[in-house]
Amino acid sequence: MSTERPAILISSLDLDRLEHLLESAEFAKDPGADALRGEIERADVVRPQDMPADVVTMNSTLECVDEVSHDTHTLTLVYPDRADRDKGRISVLAPVGTALLGLRVGQVIEWPSPSGSKPLRLKVLSISYQPEAAGELHR
């Protein structure tokens, strides 16, 4: 499995909100909090109005393909209180949510499967909605 992670971008607005989330008593000890902190620390931060439209930001809706099973998924990256797996709303604190944050269209994430067998690989195919691209800079 590749250990090199792709470069990621995060908007300053998302950064502020994610740091606040991680400092909250409710989520500070969440199992996904350390992974999210690590991603935030390595991210390049840009102003919301400077965010390229091909980057997965908070509340973005994207299409991705599992390169192992070839299944496609439409997912929306959300804060934990809005997560609903059945509706494709994935928490940023879930392993896949943390991994998708800041990726560009065409980039691939890889992580161990829950069973420990072959690694899972998701490729971002497109972004159908990104708040920054829609002009929703203060959502």
From TrEMBL:
InterPro entries: GreA/GreB_C_sf, Rnk_N, Tscrpt_elong_fac_GreA/B_C, Tscrpt_elong_fac_GreA/B_fam. Residues 52-129 form the Transcription elongation factor GreA/GreB C-terminal domain. Keywords: Kinase, Transferase. NCBIfam families: PRK05753.1 (NF004396). Signal peptide: none annotated. Residues 6-46 form the Regulator of nucleoside diphosphate kinase N-terminal domain. It comes from Alkalisalibacterium limincola. One of its GO terms (molecular function) is kinase activity. GO terms for biological process: DNA-templated transcription elongation; regulation of DNA-templated transcription elongation. PANTHER family: REGULATOR OF NUCLEOSIDE DIPHOSPHATE KINASE, TRANSCRIPTION ELONGATION FACTOR GREA. The lineage of its organism: Bacteria, Pseudomonadati, Pseudomonadota, Gammaproteobacteria, Lysobacterales. The keyword ATP-binding does not apply. This is Nucleoside diphosphate kinase regulator. It holds the Pfam family GreA_GreB.
